[in-house]
TrEMBL record:
This is Amidohydrolase. InterPro entries: Amidohydro-rel (IPR006680), Metal_Hydrolase (IPR032466), Metallo-dep_Lactonases (IPR052350). GO terms for molecular function: hydrolase activity. The lineage of its organism: Bacteria, Bacillati, Actinomycetota, Actinomycetes, Micromonosporales. Belongs to the metallo-dependent hydrolases superfamily. It comes from Micromonospora arida. Transmembrane segments: none annotated. It comes from the Bacteria.
Length: 292
């Protein structure tokens, strides 16, 4: 399937991309020697041609650093750009007043586009982070505010994520990047088992995103990605999966349009309705996006 064929399907929603200007929000995780492709600033100006070429009509921008000032800035950008339908921001989940902090964000310019919250759990050294009462209290407050919670975890953290999801059935959870399967590096058996356990909880959905940068060695083929996508389809089903570009991080391994094309090939065996769920309907429903 060509990018043009995918683009002719109306209303693609990119449920996962980032924006940053490093003078305002440094990205210390970017190594300029090993990551030159993203050693730069990325704004809506750079995003627009990529989304336009891929037929994307709405996006969800996702936080990238755990600082209070980033989310209001992303909300302001979304207020000025009709392409950006939603913002997944950040709050300190361990704060005693998470509910008040969320209310302040919603009162900010563009606050109506706040659709979720994310924390960089993958970087937490404490293996019991998601079991902590203070963290769970904060995540429960996110759910009570009507927002989704994005789970950014590595594959070894999936059991902890499953415990969290099971214990907080009132919260809508979105798993980023399928929990980062170890593609090309190890047997996928443990990841497959743990993803199935997470997907058994009905309050979870997942993003088909961030897979190209999980393949060992930096080079990849469609065949490298197929086991992860097929397993996700098996355990979640199309109506609980959504497309995400992970731009600009995806540029470490591919272009925006190439990822759209490859995912289109992987989804080709599905029905039109099943593909429509992944390309737009799941994200619109879970993040409660306003129609474009």
């Amino acid at each position: 399937m060509t990018t043009g064929e995918v683009a002719r399907r109306p209303g693609i929603v990119d449920a996962h991309h980032h924006l940053w200007v490093r003078a305002r929000h440094p990205q210390p995780w970017i190594d300029p020697h090993t990551m030159p492709a993203i050693d730069d600033d990325f704004t809506p100006v750079e995003l627009a041609p990529a989304t336009r070429a891929a037929g994307v009509t709405q996006t969800v921008v996702v936080q990238s650093v755990a600082v209070r000032s980033e989310t209001p800035e992303l909300l302001g950008i979304a207020a000025d750009d009709p392409l950006i339908a939603g913002v997944v921001g950040w709050v300190d989940l361990t704060a005693a007043d998470v509910d008040r902090r969320l209310a302040r964000l919603r009162r900010a310019r563009g606050g109506e586009r706040l659709v979720g919250i994310r924390h960089l759990v993958q970087s937490e050294p404490d293996p019991t982070y998601l079991d902590r009462p203070d963290v769970r209290h904060g995540i429960a407050a996110v759910g009570a505010a009507g927002l989704a919670f994005d789970l950014l975890v590595r594959h070894r953290q999936l059991p902890a994520a499953a415990r969290l999801v099971r214990d907080l059935p009132q919260v809508r959870f979105v798993l980023d990047h399928l929990g980062k399967p170890p593609l090309g590096r190890a047997d996928l058996g443990d990841w497959q088992r743990d993803l199935r356990a997470l997907a058994a909880e009905p309050n979870t959905t997942a993003k088909l995103s961030g897979l190209v940068t999980e393949v060992d060695g930096g080079s990849w083929t469609t065949a490298d990605l197929r086991p992860a996508v097929e397993h996700a389809l098996d355990v979640f089903g199309p109506d609980r999966l959504m497309f995400g570009s992970d731009w600009p991080v995806c540029l470490l391994a591919t272009s925006y349009t190439r990822w759209v094309t490859v995912l289109g090939d992987l989804l080709d065996p599905l029905t039109d309705d099943e593909r429509a769920a992944i390309w737009r309907q799941t994200a619109s429903r879970v993040y409660r996006l306003a129609p474009s």
